[in-house]
Amino acid sequence: MSPASLRSIAVLTSGGDAPGMNAAVRAVVRTALDRSLDVYAVYEGYQGLVEGGDRIRKMGWEDVGGILHRGGTVIGTARSMRFKEREGRLEAAHNLAQREIDGLVVIGGDGSLTGADVLRSEWSDLLRELVEQGRLSPEQAERHAELRIVGMVGSIDNDMCGTDMTIGADTALHRITEAVDAIGSTASSHQRSFVVEVMGRRCGYLALMAAIATGADWVLIPEHPPMVDEWEELMCRRIRAGRHAGRRKSTVIVAEGARDRYGQPITGAHVQKILEERLGEDTRTTVLGHVQRGGAPSAFDRYLSTVLGHAAVEQLIAAAPGDEPQLIAVHEDRVARAPLAECVRRTRSVGDLIDAQKHDEAMALRGASFGDAYDVYRTLVRTLPHPRDPDLPRLKLAIVHAGGPAPGMNTAVRAAVRLILDRGHSALGVRNGFRGLIGGQIEELSWMSVHGWAPRGGAELGTNRVVPESRDLYDLAKQIEKHGIDGILMIGGWAGYQAAHRLYVERESFSAFNIPIACLPATIDNNLPGSDLSVGCDTALNAIVQAVDRIKQSAVASRRCFVVEVMGRHCGFLALMSGMASGSERVYLHEEGIKLDDLREDLANLVAGFRAGKRLGLMIRNENAHALYTTAFMCALFEEEGGELFDVRPAILGHLQQGGDPSPFDRIRATRLAARAVDYLITEAPKDPPGGGFVGFQSGKLTVTDLDLLPRLCDNKAQRPREQWWLALRPIARILARPGPTPKPPGAA
Ligand code: ADP
């Protein structure tokens, strides 16, 4: 079978539902239509495949409109006993072959993906049997000699090997974090303890990440049981010490599959009993249950599902006969492919290793970043730092912000302070950015001074966009000397990077600047080099996406087009990503500019769309997309030209994008980047000359880039990196937003 023979594909969601599945189905359907394939949705998972009839429906472009923001899966999911039997799979094969479908996209957990692989491996036998039974003609069987399969993992647990993230896990983390934050405020009012039980029978991802994100006091996960017999006593000692140190609440997060080192389950109820009996604490248990599955998908899950769905169809088209079925995965923050059967096998082996109490091996299969995250967490939740080595020189490391406020700044400061203290050094907090440093607003930060900062939005230390000028440098050097500062950690945005670079290049003139400097990217704009994502941009994206969901709902009774203006300065990241995550039909970026012809074409599309019965238009515009074609201008133009057909409203989202409590990703990213930055400062301090660098995540890896590369990596005029990885997503955004398949040139097939 040549690849070109693929004509029809089907998509189904199966197993447990996961937020983001709808976005994946939408991406599969629209990409397929754009590639001139017929595409079917199978309702109710494998059950629908077995039953056929109107459970397998041909989809059009608009059939997947308005589902992106919805939780669960609109095409339904079910567990199917019949599909587990060969007889059921025979019906499934019949239903597929009859409709000339020979590509199947399965979105589900490891059970569902196993099912897909079984169907594929039996395919030719099943077709032969159908021919023998006279239910399929030999020609039909010949035409569909092979079933191409591609899988995507929909699972809130993030429990699949071969992909760094599964569809739904980020949203589940949002639900857990919101709940634990909310419980935390009531718990501290009453000085109570709380035990929160979260999902994860075989996987501690949600529990561990939620513990990092919320600053919980103790976490129990399946892969890494407490390594001592008296773990209850250890936990109680920690919590007691926390109370003495001034904590008003204690939170323990328990994964549902948590167990002790002998494999005995540890339940929330058991932890509650221990805390009550041994500490005399008023303790409550909350089992979060299905709340974790529900609700609108997060911005990340919408983005992830969209790019995976698109890649799944491309994979089906590109697959050669006999190719092994692939899992469309995310690896190192990029779409990747991995052999499906192998991923399922490894995933199952983690469970077996946990059962066999081979915890180190189970942990290793989860990947290095899981282990690192666990180690960082263990340090952060200590009530006091480890005893310091008296022979070690005590460094004084100063923490300063610069740039606009970014959610997650406080999280990063908390992590940095505790990691600095834990390594035996002193942490100084600088108030009000570089202006504060010039003016000597510097104070020592203790372990407990950052207590409760993990979930807090804003910037407790204060931030501004001041970049020290020539006349400030002398005062700055004097303050560094006066306070004996041995290193600077700058947590902030563009202004902070400029300031750090300034200090770095002025070392020859001011010996005080001969100290290590680390920059940690924290800005909602995501306009910094050396990191694919900055701390704060995920929270901002979620704020935009939620606001746009509401704006769209407000338009139910009218025919209306919104022009939504988002922040980002001259960087279009927020505009493009929120456009993809909210289903906007057009995104305007400074990187591309706006031409009058573009506006004409967009207007013509709007008019055609509304004439054809559409009720809502959505355009997203970066705040600086064009100096003259402003949001007001565009609204006026569309309004005037749209006449009676539709009206136009601007929605300038403004500072709601900078506020809010940091999202789980931003908290986790802030914590991990802070750990890397502190490490860097301590390593560089004894060197001559010490280094300067900016930390980041690049292709999923923690990296440090030399500060002297900054000018080369940046477009200084536009204040953004010269290379921006996310610009490569524009074609996908365009395909999915277009109000119909790409028009084919005349004469094309
Ligand atoms: P998940 O996909 O979330 O792991 P399940 O394990 O319940 O969920 O699997 C979902 C469905 O996939 C099952 O109801 C069944 O129809 C199908 N399935 C699971 N395992 C197999 C298998 N070994 N062979 C065939 N079908 C399977």
Can you offer a commentary on this structure?
The chain is α/β, with parallel strands linked by helices and about 750 residues long. It folds into 4 domains: about 5-165 and about 295-350, Rossmann fold, CATH 3.40.50.450; about 170-290, Phosphofructokinase domain (Rossmann fold); about 395-535 and about 665-715, Rossmann fold (3-Layer(aba) Sandwich); about 535-660 and about 730-735, 3-Layer(aba) Sandwich (Rossmann fold), CATH 3.40.50. About 40% of the residues lie in helices and about 15% in strands. It has 25 helices and 24 strands. The strands form 5 sheets. Strands 3-2-1-4-5-10-11 form a 7-stranded mixed beta sheet, with helices on both faces. β15 (about 485-490), α18 and β16 form a beta-alpha-beta unit. The longest helix is centred in the first third of the chain and has 23 residues, at about 110-130. The protein is globular. The structure holds adenosine-5'-diphosphate. Adenosine-5'-diphosphate binds near residues 14, 46, 80, 83 and 115.
CATH structural architecture of the largest domain:
3-Layer(aba) Sandwich
List of distinct ligands in this structure: adenosine-5'-diphosphate
- Rounded mean pLDDT score: 93
Strand order of the largest sheet: 3-2-1-4-5-10-11
Largest sheet: 7 strands, mixed
Number of separate domains: 4
Low-confidence stretches: none
Class by alpha and beta content: alpha/beta
Helix content: 40-55%
Tally of DSSP helical segments: 25
How many β-strand stretches?
Answer: 24
Terminal-residue CA separation: 19 Å
Strand content: 15-25%
- Quaternary state of this entry equals single chain
Looking at the structure, what is the overall shape? globular
Radius of gyration based on Cα positions? 28 Å
CATH class of the largest domain: Alpha Beta
The CATH topology of the largest domain, please? Rossmann fold
